[in-house]
Amino acid sequence: MKQLLDYADILIAAPFDLGYLCMADKFCKQYLETSKKNELVFIVLSFSGRLILNIANRQYTGPYILYAMLCNILFTGFVFILFRSGWEKKVLAASVLMVTARLAENFCGSFLACLALFFRHTVQKIPEPFIGEWESWLIICACYCFRTYAVYRMMGRLEPVFESKPGRWYATLAIPLLVIVIVFDVIAWGACHGIMVRSGGNMGLYYDQIFSHAEFVLLSLLLMVAAGFYMFGMHRIYAEQEKSGWYHSQIAVYKMLAEQYRQSEGLRHDMKNHIIALSVLSRNREWEKLDNYLKNVENSGLEPGGDTTGSSVVDALLYQKKKAAGERAIQWECDVQAPKEGGINEFDLCVLFGNILDNAIEACERLRCDEYRFIHIQARTVKQCFLLEVKNSIARTETYTKGTTNKENSKEHGIGLRNVSDVVNKYNGVIKIEAEKGTFVISILMSLDYAVHDVKTAV
């Protein structure tokens, strides 16, 4: 009976530990891949391993730091073996779970210990109180419940952190979390060996305990906040870098299009001279020279004229998109007048038209071949505002909800519209999006006064 009581706290905490492992399995399943069988194996093996290590540590009274390290290694190993994904992502998932468990458990345990000591000292009038056996059991159970709840609350909030990113990024994010786990294990080992914060002077053991538990409460709270800021801050930095890279790659493409269009315009301008030269070669029956001349004209990129918008860069972009639409049997209607020089930056205009038209072409491609496909573009300057409206056909069952996508590659979704939104915000504009009855409409209004004022301020 005495031996059973020695393990009573382990037996009482076991069901709560099982609940935590079920929640940890659910967390891993959300961000990693596995089978139903492996889920059950993960829970059973993790629970059995932790129970055996707990009993072994109590039986042989080994160093706590060794027990904690074995628990962490065992848990990480089961995540590695029983879940499918890149090893960096699995390390991050295991690190997040371990640091959550450690911080939540220490915060809850130390906070409740402070309350218990305060109650005994002030209400029960015990000069130097200690936490009793029953209170210890209750605190242990509360700690398990709290860390299970902490994992549950985090589960849906970490989706942006775990979305498709390079493996090195996951590994970089996991390193500080693993350091936090190791630091807490060392601190707990020190507490087990009597290393604690002293109250100073001769305030007594009661205040020494209060100060030590308060230290854990404060440290846990600060590290929870720091870990949260670190993870979401790293995600924000990555998203901004990705968006910036996408934007600059678009700028490079638009510059190339503008140069090609400029060359074509130059060749078209010289067409009269080319025709005279070709006529001379034809009359003189110099067929070989005529053939070479025609090849040079062909290689120089002469193409039919596109829509004249007032901006050569926008003309080049619209020509390419019109060509892409024609290859996909999409009816094209375009009536665009770009703002005059000094209004909206040409490359910002290309970001708007490029991303919107790419999305429109993709939406039309998703339609069946026998369905009507169209893209209608209207843009003009009214007073000191630039108005842009693009309509395109979509499936009649298709709707638009902010933050959702119909694209297969969800990683690329949203970057285009985010870039459009950034340009519109830059010019203090507004966006309106509607999707109903088989038509998708995006309308944009931007202030040219704001653009000119912004440029003058920068100068």
Number of domains: 2
What is the straight-line distance between the termini? Answer: 85 Å
Helix content: 55-70%
- Global structural class: alpha+beta
**What proportion of the residues form beta strands (DSSP E)?**
5-15%
Key attributes of the depicted protein:
2 domains; 5-stranded mixed β-sheet; 459 residues; 9% strand; disordered C terminus; disordered N terminus; alpha+beta; 5 strands
In a few lines, what is going on in this structure?
This protein has helices at residues 2-6, 8-31, 36-60, 64-82, 87-122, 133-155, 159-162, 167-192, 205-269, 271-283, 287-299, 312-327, 346-365, 415-426, 448-458, and strands at residues 331-336, 374-382, 385-393, 430-436, 439-447.
How would you sum up this structure, described in words?
It is built from 15 helices and five strands. It folds into two domains: 2-246, no CATH class; 307-458, Histidine kinase-like ATPase, C-terminal domain (Heat Shock Protein 90), CATH 3.30.565.10. Helix 2 packs antiparallel against helix 3, helix 9 crosses helix 13 and helix 13 (346-365) runs antiparallel to helix 14. Helix 13 (346-365) links the parallel strand 1 (331-336) and strand 2. Helices cover 68% and strands 9% of the residues. Residues 1-5, 301-305, 408-413 and 452-459 have low confidence and may be disordered. A five-stranded mixed β-sheet has the order 1-2-3-5-4. The chain is of the alpha+beta class and 459 residues long.
